[in-house]
Amino acid sequence: MKKWLLMLMVMVGLMVMLAACTTTGGTDSDNGTDDEETTDEGTSDGGGSGDHILRLNNENEPTSLDSTKAFDNVSYYILNNLMEGLTRLGDTHEPEEATAESWEVSDDGLTYTFTIRENANWSNGEPVIARDFEYAWKRLANPETAADAAFLTDLIEGASEYNSGEGSADDMAVTALDEKTLEVTLNSPQAYFLSIISNPAFFPVHFETVEEDDNWAAEADTFVGNGPFALTSWNHNSNLTMDKNEEYWDVDSVQLDGVVWEMVSDRNTEYQLFQTGELHTSSIPTELAEQLIADGEVEFEDQSGTYFYRFNVEMEPFQNEKIRKAFSMAVDQQEIVDYVTKRNENAAHGFVANGFPEPSGEDFRDVGGDLLSFDPEEAQSLLEEGMEEEGYSELPEITLSYNTSDEHKLIAEVLQDMFKTHLDVDVTLANTEWNVFLEAQQNLEMQFSRSSFIADFADPINYLESFITGSSMNRTGWSNEEYDDLIAAAKTEADEETRFELMHQAEEILMEEAPIFPIYFYNQPLLQADEVSGIVRHPVGYIELKWASIQ
Fold first, then answer.
1. Do residues 188 and 110 make contact, with C-beta atoms less than 8 angstroms apart?
2. Angle between helix 34-46 and 267-275 (nearest 10)
3. Residues 486-496: tens digit of each pLDDT
């Protein structure tokens, strides 16, 4: 039996015993663990007024609640309910009217003219106006903002030039024609434009508030939003509360009185809180996933995303393509989803996940096929060739980094064992808390690190544009001029068949040069209390609570 599989079986046994103990004793505060006590205190501080309070777990402190600066799930889950863009994704995950009550599109498909609702207000009672959108979108593209999501504006005329320092804000074709009319001109017709502007990066900001205080989004008492809920308290690293926003234009559709978001990073603790009724939903502890799924307790929702690892090509030994490919091909993705995560994920053999239809109706992933395979013999051969090219008699020390999580740790340990078994390479593991980890990864301070990508909008280009030269999402140091040219061409190509072919060519280069390697494609398995309904979980990685209710 493989070492890691034996280790996993032992861990499962221990966790099942732990779950049995905590299930019977979880309500007894005298027997609670330190984690449980901290969480209980946070819940009581979090408050929430009214009978219909939804209690959810956000796992971690939001990176930012400034929509221009935030760019991760732990921020977007909350932001998508505190604020609203011109469009909002509905229950079918298609864009629909939101702060904009209507829009017109020019005959050439380039110019959109949005009309903002007369009764769209900020949480402070002031009207949402077109200038708030123009200001926010140009702030997003402004190179001084250094926003991670700035690349999402590239389809707007003049935005990439502004962001690169080759143009100005005036060159970016977003214009408030009057208080309730916004005009936007694109570089080329793109069918996904209405979907992309539902992303939190395109939310407006209250002009006066931001101008007066750049830290306006750091505390509840200075935050101003325009969404279904208003931020009422924020106990940092503990919990956050939001109440129904009475200034929201569609407040009659909001059935909840409020939402309390806990920040519990340990999935076993989260599961215990769900069992005792202190949370209405829960993710699934890895060690209990198989049994919970077999018992029919788990609901599955679609999610578009990839769990993967990044090599830093500026650090030895991963400057060598053959060595990167050797590590990639030494990993058995199918064993990881079958025996480690066990949540019915699909093993990933390309970077772009399933779920994107081609013009022919076929799925992008099916057309692209498998671009990475588990092949330990070829991996060993490539490692030897790469070491010879670099003049290595032995590899430099290798450290695999991951952000603190029991599951990330377990997957890292399995990879560590696979590298030892198939390559005879010793790999050291290092874990770091999320915010520190993210900053270090962005600064290319990590040699080899775990990562994940959840789609921001429903198109393969969103995955692939992450790895162009200089992208804030690249985080590998990898650069390929042909790849950059293919992505640039795809982003301005109006013919869909040609556009998809360009994206396939780009993905082939990405997987061939291997600055990354994928593990699995995400789904959304969860536990949810029977009395809760109406939560919409979008495949692009954030949720809607506007229509949620508690019976």
1. yes
2. 60
3. 999 998 888 88
Residue type, 112: Y
Pull the structure tokens for residue 308.
């993967």
Query: How far is the C-alpha of 23 from the C-alpha of 535, rounded, in Å?
Result: 26
Which pairing describes strands 398-403 and 427-432: parallel, antiparallel, or unpaired? parallel
Average pLDDT on 150-170 reads 94
How many degrees, rounded to 5, is the angle at CA 259 between CA 540 and CA 21? 90
218 contact partners, CB below 8 Å, separation of at least 6 = 65
What percentage of the chain carries pLDDT values higher than 90? 75
What does the alpha-carbon distance between residue 500 and residue 459 come to, in Å, rounded to a whole number?
Answer: 10
This prediction has a pTM of 0.74
Cα separation of 40 and 381, whole Å? Answer: 54
302-316: string of b/e by CB count within 10 Å (b at 16+)?
ebbbbbbbbbbbebb
Please provide residue 462's backbone torsions phi and psi, each rounded to the nearest 5 degrees.
-65, -40
- Single-letter code of the amino acid located at 417: D
Contact indicator for 7, 413 with CB cutoff of 8 Å: yes
Does pLDDT of 49 surpass 60?
A: no
In eight-state DSSP terms, residue 318 is T
Nearest to 520 by CA among 422, 432, 453, 430: 453
The string of DSSP codes covering 418-434 is HHHHHH---EEEEEE-H
* DSSP secondary structure letter of residue 340: I
Q: Do residues 147 and 201 lie in contact, with contact meaning Cβ atoms separated by under 8 Å? A: yes
Contacts of 485 (CB under 8 A, 6+ apart): none
CA distance linking residue 65 with residue 82, whole number of Å:
9
